[in-house]
Amino acid sequence: MNMLSIEDTNRMSWNEVDECKDRLFKQIEAEFTDPESLIIAPLLRTGGIVGGMLSIKLRAVQMLPLQFKYLYNPTKISQLLSIPDFLAEVPSPMNVVLCEGNTSSGSTAIKASAAIREKYPHAKVYLATLTKVFGGPEELEGIEKIFYGRQTDEGFKATAEEKESLDLREGVTVFPWENADDELSDLNA
Predict the structure, then answer these.
(1) Low-confidence winner among 12-26, 70-84, 139-153 (lowest mean pLDDT)
(2) Domain ranges of the chain
(3) Segment 124-175, tens digit of pLDDT
(4) Distance from CA of residue 12 to its chain's centroid?
(5) Is the separation of the CB atoms in 43 and 81 below 8 Å?
(6) Which contacts of 182-185 are long-range, i.e. CB under 8 A and separated by 24 or more positions?
(7) Which residue in 157, 169, 153, 91 sits closest to 124, CA to CA?
(8) How confident is the model at residue 1 (pLDDT cuts 50, 70, 90)?
(9) DSSP 3-state helix, strand, coil percentages of the chain (rounded to 5)?
(10) Residue 155's Cα: distance from chain center in Å?
């Protein structure tokens, strides 16, 4: 794989974040008519921002924070925060909306979903992500459905026709709250 550089990045504006969040909101609102059945599960760190925005917009009260870290050499995903207990009554049905900033392979979301379902076996887990990398999976093990605000060509796999017809976001997305050098360091590891 070629090393990515700052020229390969594409900083997202707050206006575009808002547009992606609104697309997510509409998809989730169409799927769920009762916000009280939703539990927002921000996948910390970036998912904390997405989860916070969606919980306010959806008027969802309960949150289930999760933290996993993708590690390199050797490559593995480690859980950094145990799944907390609820102090309030858990809604039935229990619809958990796992929130992420960007989804590529979906491996972290799969691991988080398994951890949620281990603690709460009756939970149905959904994924809400601001951006989803084109060429990545359309379905993920343990995830009922994927909602996303926009697709990107972060994997640099799309043809010119696919980029245009799908309105793919060019390059490696860097959200307004992220540091491009940090993102590149992770991607180039």
Answers:
(1) 70-84
(2) 6-187
(3) 999 999 999 999 989 999 999 999 999 999 989 999 999 999 999 999 999 9
(4) 15
(5) no
(6) 183/9, 184/4, 184/5, 184/6, 184/8, 184/9
(7) 91
(8) low
(9) 35, 30, 40
(10) 16
pLDDT band at 187 (very low <50, low <70, confident <90, very high): confident
**Could you give the CA distance from residue 115 to residue 68 in angstroms, rounded to a whole number?**
10
Q: Quick one: average pLDDT of 32-42?
A: 87
Q: Is 124 within 8 Å of 96 (Cβ atoms)?
A: yes
CATH top class, domain 6-187: alpha beta
Distance, in Å, from the CA atom of 122 to the CA atom of 126, rounded to the nearest integer, reads: 13
User: For residues 80 and 118, what is the distance between their CA atoms, to the nearest angstrom?
Assistant: 16
Give the per-residue pLDDT at 88: 80
C-alpha span between 102 and 178 (Å, rounded): 12
Distance CA 150, CA 170 (A): 11
Within 10 angstroms of residue 38's Cβ, the number of other Cβ atoms is 25
Helix (H) or strand (E) holding 119: helix 107-119
Q: Which residue has the tokens 């050797």?
A: 74
